[in-house]
Amino acid sequence: MSARPRLATLFAALTAFAAVGVPAASSHAAPKVPATAVLDGARLQQTRLRLDHGDTRLRGALKELTARADAWLDQGPWTVVDKPKPAPGGDIHDYLSQAPYWWPTRPKTADNPWGCPYEQRDGERNPEVDTGTDRQDVEKVFDSAYDLSLAWYYTGRKQYAEKAAQVLRTWFLDPATKMNPNLDHGQFIPCKYDGRAIGIIDFSQSYTSVLDAIAILNTGAPGWSRADRTAMRDWNIAFRGWLTDSAFGKEEGAAKNNHGTFYDMQLAALACATGDEELARQTVLDARARRIDPQIAADGSQPQELARTRSWHYSTFDLVAYTRLAAIGRHVGVDLWSYRGPEGQSLFKAVDYLLPAATGAAPWTHPELEFHRYAATDVVHAAADAGDVGAQKAVRLLEAPPGGDLWALRPAAEQLDSIAG
Fold first, then answer.
1. Which residue of 22, 47, 122, 321 sits 20 to 30 Å from the alpha carbon of 59, by its own alpha carbon?
2. What pLDDT digit, counting tens, does each position of 36-57 carry?
3. In this structure, are residues 348 and 385 in contact, taking their beta carbons and an 8 Å threshold?
4. How far apart are CA 389 and CA 214, in angstroms?
5. pTM over 0.85
6. Number of helices and strands in the chain (H, E)
7. Euclidean distance between CA atoms 179 and 236, whole angstroms
């Protein structure tokens, strides 16, 4: 085919994108491979090239992604110093969140303004945790940075990159508004604890997406400078040190349930992002006997998560951490998917255990306060990509999450039925 017909074909494909209101990828320079910690950078590059050549199979996902990015453009930026009062230590730059499943047991009075003592109600979220702390704002930081950076990479629209850069600088870097690199006051309980190790999961759940957003911006995004890249790397090195050396970090790393899995995932991703490949590799290797063996049963169930009042949520939630940890392992030469424990435990079996409920073929028979079938969609995608035949057959039967199935553009599992507010 001559050059002229090829150009005509490309022009027609790009015109088709514009006709449905989806911004076609611009003619900016050929995309670089981002040094992502979880996502496969080379796969992102190939997806961008497919978009550049008008692959209509990606049209719906791109439209959903750019709609999300557009919604962030007139929001934020957010800052840790906006909360009405500082964390118990008194530093407004310290992150503060409140334990979500703890409730007051007495009326609030002048002498007892919190209604103490507090009691735990597993799986029942206390709405007061969304006021007066940083939790909801930091989730917006995480989600917006990820959506905006991906949208920039796939479309070349500079306003997406510039907004992502503003969000990240405001929360992490600007002296007046930055967050200190610690989680000393995560998930405090009024009148009981000023902070808890369990609060680390506030970041473990989503911060690895921010690491990938930074890697994407580092490929040359407008508005994200060399100084920004250096300062963000320094922040991540300090945060990684807090995770490994603090008493809370050590306690969370010793957790036996999903908290331990998410700790490993976060530490391995931070190690990748900050150049400590050996720490990342060892963390993934250790997860075989340290996490999979005791947490996943021979039949693929996760007994500790099944005991929760939100057993479906937490079973899929833990597998988000496992599948993302396996993706990090790919970058450092560890195939976590192929591991088999002494009783045959494996990630494949854990995903397969969910397939009947994930596809609608059978009900979920364990306790669940609010079942959402789509919660398993991403982890099934991950297993299918890793070669699980059962998961591959199940993909066409999955329920799309709210906002659409974006796996084709960001192939790394997310918790799609988040109960974080």
1. 321
2. 999 999 999 999 999 999 999 9
3. no
4. 34
5. yes
6. 17, 4
7. 12
